[in-house]
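Usage

Read records sequentially. Each one opens with the input sequence:
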Amino acid sequence: MGRRANEIAAEIEALVTSGQLAPGAGLPPLRDLALDLGVNPNTVAAAYRVLRERGVIETAGRRGSRVLPRPALTPRDYSPLDIPPGVRDLADGNPDARLLPDPAPALAAAGRGPDPQAGRYGGPDLDPRLLALARRSFAADGLPVDAIGIASGSLDAQERIFQAWLRPGDAVAVEDPGWGSLFDLLPALGLRLQPMPVDDEGPTVAGLRHALDAGVRAVVLTARAQNPTGASLGEGRAAALRALLAEHPDVLLVEDDHGHGIVDGPYHSLCGDGGSRTGGGEEEAPGGRTAPEDGEGARGGDTAGGGGERGERGGGGSTVRHWAVIRSVAKSLGPDLRIAVIAGDRDTIDRVRGRQRLGAGWVSHLLQRTAAGLWAAYDPAPSAASYRKRREALVDALAVRGVLAHGRSGLCVWVPVPDETAAFAGLMQRGWAVSPGARFRLETPPGLRLTVSTLDLDEIPRLADDVAAVLRRRGDSVRGV
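and closes with the structure output:
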């Protein structure tokens, strides 16, 4: 190994990447490694600090340092499931392609954008039509709309928000079970995960209280269509969580509303003031009747505020000082658009957009205009009804067979199981590929995620039979298959 901290860190990271240091493997005590290398213990301590901030290792005081169970350089989905021919794929988490709008007409129209400066160096970075649609969407759900930004998808938006306010070593409260990609991103940024238990109504009050008492600097949650459990915040739970957050106004609050446009229920945000809400993101009427004309709303793209125009201020004050609600179009309009709109406090949006200008510069105006065209014409009711029908049919069919399942909203159903490996293998043998729960959980018990988005209603009885057979108990023993 080298003798400098960055050299030592790089060589240890290479051992992790190659698999020579497996997840969970312990590292030598820093004084022992310093003696072996003939360097000052402070040099090894600095190397370990670099690895910790890069999400490669964790340190636990006297218990030493070890490679993270899932180091940041090996994301949870790094090894895609090997699905044999003829096995039904209920693992990928994608929306039903049959329900996505055809992007071709909107893309063609986007290529004839009216602003000759859009998409050029030095031009505006936000499309005014998409901005106006986003403002109306957020305002209809009672959210302040003083400042809005646009990012290349939900995860890109979250990364930029975290980098705007957090520093390596900060703790972030996350849902457990929760989104595996977020679990990978946070350690890669040097941030620590603080799990919050989730039930059908989202993060529990006790779970959030524990996280706040532990000193988290940020809270990330999904108000509806939670991945993987389908949890959805109810009015009472949302009010209780808002009350807790109000006692910690300096905590950063981030809501991932990837379910916008595919869920037909009220949206209970923790960022707003708890006022009345319209129905679940369906405030844009079919055929775009509420859609503004090009150029309406914010002008030139650089006035991301303007939330007070035409009385569209939305809700009153927010629960905390710094907050953001991210609405991705991935599930409703198509994952490949890579577009998410962000409402937040002005400081947060200004920081995100300022850093964005220094890096990527802007999100493609061609994609922004395409997303705006699709959004304006999109009727969410058929998609939301279709997903609800499939999800409820599966949960009900499993209940009849004595299997508990969760799925109040969104594209997924979560099935707790006593033995993940056996249940996964048993379903694969019966022709069903599902997602092992290990990809989505930190401290919660085992489970399986079943994506219902492409599931046909006539397939559900056989699937429910097979899940029940895999989980059938005899006495106190659990049959794997």
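Summary fields computed downstream for this record:
- The mean pLDDT is 86.
- The CA atoms of residues 209 and 343 lie 25 Å apart.
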